[in-house]
């Protein structure tokens, strides 16, 4: 449990910091491009808070929550009694719920159905690609182990 919490804390810190850097970069580019009063947050999201600074702090914290959820949910892959497919489905379900909830909140996607559909499609394709890569990697590892067992048995 300590290791899971440590992973979550470290990933939270890294994700929040990198999210802050990305927002600063986007804000700088927007301001250099001459966009007046540009901020890298949805105006609908900012309106949920008393000031844009509070919205920015919450924005960074939410980036951290996404990172922590991805890191903490990796414990599921350490459960030997659960098959790889079930592990992947559980990981997908939990992390996508967190990501989608945060994304809907940050971008206020419930106001924009087409953007919500696009975001959900993007998440699905991304997870499909990750799943295929994980499967191929796992299959190659199993094949390598089987080959080494065959050569050791001869």
Number of domains: 1
Tally of alpha and pi helices: 5
Strand portion:
under 5%
Helical residues, percent: over 70%
Structural class: mainly alpha
Largest sheet report: none
Shape: elongated
Q: For the residues shown, what is the average pLDDT?
A: 88
Rounded to the nearest angstrom, the distance between the terminal CA atoms is: 42 Å
Uncertain spans: none
| Number of beta-strand segments | 0
**Rg:** 20 Å
Order of helices and strands: HHHHH
Q: How would you describe this structure to a colleague?
A:
The structure is a single chain. This protein has 5 helices and no strands. The mean pLDDT is 88. It starts with a helix and ends with a helix. Helices cover 79% and strands 0% of the residues. It is mostly helical. Helix 4 (84-107) packs antiparallel against helix 5 (113-153). The protein has one domain (2-116).
Short description:
With 154 residues, the protein is an all-alpha fold. It has helices spanning 2-32, 43-46, 52-72, 84-107, 113-153. The longest helix has 41 residues, at 113-153.
Attribute tags:
single chain; 154 residues; mainly alpha; 5 helices; 0% strand
Helix and strand arrangement:
Blueprint: H1 2-32, H2 43-46, H3 52-72, H4 84-107, H5 113-153
Helix pairs in contact: 1-3, 3-4, 4-5
